[in-house]
Design brief:
The complex is a heterodimer. By secondary structure, chain A is mostly helical. Chain A has 12 helices and 2 strands. The chains are: A mainly alpha, B mainly alpha. Chain B: This is ABC transporter permease.
Chain lengths: ~280, ~270
């Protein structure tokens, strides 16, 4: 029976663990313009990634965008999750599928939608022009705002589904009791709902932050050529720069941040809530 | 009737904003795909379905679509049985190190797509050198990578359906004289069915729409649909591209509806 885990485990070892080890080894090598890669054991690539002003800026932009997007997703996702969790019957499964559906439609498809909405000839500008509210198209695309909108749209379903699973477990009577004792809606939310939903808030935020850090399509398509985040920067090193060792180091910095957060998030949850 | 309180208004506004953000891009793409004029502008001068034919005439989209269908089907056919077997063993055998193995199997979800993609690309180049044959930009190379995507979803979903099952049913069948394989086929397998069906759905869709893992593994002869769309979108968005995107949206919708007839999706996720 236990042997049944072997095929899948061997596959993951061969196609994920071994390649990651190889990539780590490559990150310690040195780049040479003539030979591409020289065997070495140095941390030079990692040092360059945090010291070079350009790449430090890329990392900071990525962290800032991820933080902002996560907070927005939390602010919008919490009420939506609450609304979903407190729904009943047929409407509930319809609403759940409406949240799930965009998640299943690929990131590229949704980025195409944002391009069609925010572009110079896009839906928003065309409507405003048509109504005579503006004289020239607003520059809605190729800026941080467009990227954040695109990312929030991508990660919202994850936030909503994670939170609503936790909120469903909160007994409704606790809210009713607080209200009966005279608490106003805001107080009920702050003192009763939020404390009980904290495990979901933590789990959802960690999941969403990691997804934001690794954004590719939204950053490339909605941010334009000047806007750089980590995942596209990694890709560029392999395709345009051909500097594999440095690209590998960037990849491991991205992976490191992702893993530390995931582990820290689940450890904090496990210790406080045992769920 | 009393006016809604300010906090209710804010609450409703936030929920409405969330749904608008999630749905607006999907709806916009579908609407634009039937506009008559080629440069996207509003209001439309008329409606047409010819962009769908136009999209099929463009080789990169037609080939990308077929290629993505092939990769996603094969990856699902290989990955779901492997993941199901692993989930069964993890839940039932009570083996030591089960937690570590389950972390390993969920690993492909924890590693960012671009990172796993570059690692696989380097690995494939090394393997090509040793084996003296092409792996990058081949069907096999892409399918192998995408099987990696299907395993964590399958393990997660099938494990959940097994954990919800009452083992007494299996014991009862055995007591009534069913042989182990019959117990598996008539009792355990039906209990796993919702998990397996949901795993097929998620695996297929995850693979079909995957961009990051595939970026470096596609080549001139073999591109997947999302990569073809990304390359096109870096230059323009037009009704042809919107038509391609709409086909993808409709495919997901049909898969969701068909799957929902067999298992309640709202309850599986």
């Amino acid at each position: 029976m236990a042997a049944l885990v072997l095929p899948a485990s061997l596959l993951v070892l061969l196609l994920l663990v071994a390649p990651m080890l190889l990539l780590f080894r490559i990150s310690l090598n040195e780049f040479s313009p003539t030979q591409m890669m020289v065997e070495a054991t140095s941390a030079a690539n990692y040092l360059r990634a945090v010291q070079d002003p350009y790449y430090r800026q890329v990392l900071l932009t990525t962290l800032a965008v991820a933080t902002g997007s996560t907070l927005l997703a939390l602010g919008l996702g919490f009420p939506t999750a609450y609304w979903l969790a407190r729904m009943q019957g047929r409407w509930k499964s319809l609403a759940t599928i409406t949240v799930l559906f965009p998640l299943l439609v690929g990131n590229v498809v949704r980025a195409a939608g944002w391009l069609a909405l925010l572009g110079n000839g896009g839906a928003i500008n065309a409507t405003l022009l048509g109504l005579g509210l503006i004289a020239a198209p607003l520059p809605l695309l190729y800026n941080t705002g467009a990227v954040v909108a695109g990312i929030v749209a991508v990660v919202l379903p994850y936030m909503v589904l994670t939170l609503s699973a936790v909120i469903e477990g909160i007994p409704r009577q606790t809210e009713e009791a607080a209200a009966n004792l005279g608490a106003r809606p805001m107080t009920v939310f702050r003192r009763v709902v939020l404390p009980q939903a904290l495990p979901g808030v933590a789990a959802g935020s960690v999941l969403v932050f990691v997804l934001c850090m690794n954004t590719y399509a939204s950053a490339v398509l909605l941010g334009g050529p000047q806007f750089k985040m980590m995942a596209p920067a990694v890709y560029d090193q392999f395709v345009r720069g051909n500097n594999w060792p440095f690209g590998a180091a960037l990849a491991f910095i991205l992976l490191g941040i992702t893993l530390v957060l995931t582990v820290a998030g689940s450890a904090a949850l496990g210790r406080r809530y045992r769920c | 009737m009393a006016l809604p309180s300010p906090s209710r208004l804010v609450f409703g506004g936030l929920v409405a904003t969330a749904f608008t953000l999630m749905l607006a891009p999907v709806v916009t793409v579908m609407v634009i795909s039937v506009f008559r004029q080629e440069i996207v502008s509003f209001p439309p001068s008329g409606f047409t379905l010819r962009w769908y034919l136009n999209a099929w005439d463009r080789q990169e989209f037609a080939r990308g679509f077929i290629s993505s269908l092939q990769v996603a089907s094969l990856a699902t056919l290989i990955g779901v049985p492997l993941g199901t077997a692993a989930a069964l063993a993890l839940v039932r055998s009570g083996m030591r190190g089960g937690a570590a193995i389950s972390t390993l199997l969920l690993g492909p979800l924890a590693v960012p797509g671009v990172v796993a993609g570059t690692a696989l690309y380097m690995f494939y180049l090394r393997a090509e050198f040793w084996l003296d044959r092409d792996i990058t930009s081949t069907l096999q190379g892409l399918v192998a990578a995408h099987v990696l995507l299907t395993i964590p979803w399958t393990v997660r979903l099938v494990t959940a359906s097994l954990q919800g099952m009452d083992r007494a049913a299996e014991e009862a069948a055995a007591n009534l004289g069913a042989r182990p394989f019959t117990v598996f086929r008539r009792v355990t397998l039906p209990a796993m069915r919702p998990g397996i069906i949901a795993a097929c759905l998620f695996s297929f869709i995850q693979s079909f729409e995957n961009l990051e893992l595939s970026l470096l593994l596609v080549g001139p002869g073999r591109t997947t649909l999302p990569v073809a769309m990304l390359n096109y979108l870096e230059f323009r968005v037009d009704p042809t591209l919107a038509a391609v995107a709409t086909v993808q949206i409709l495919l997901v919708a049909v898969l969701l509806l068909v799957t929902d007839r067999f298992v309640s999706i709202a309850r599986t996720v």
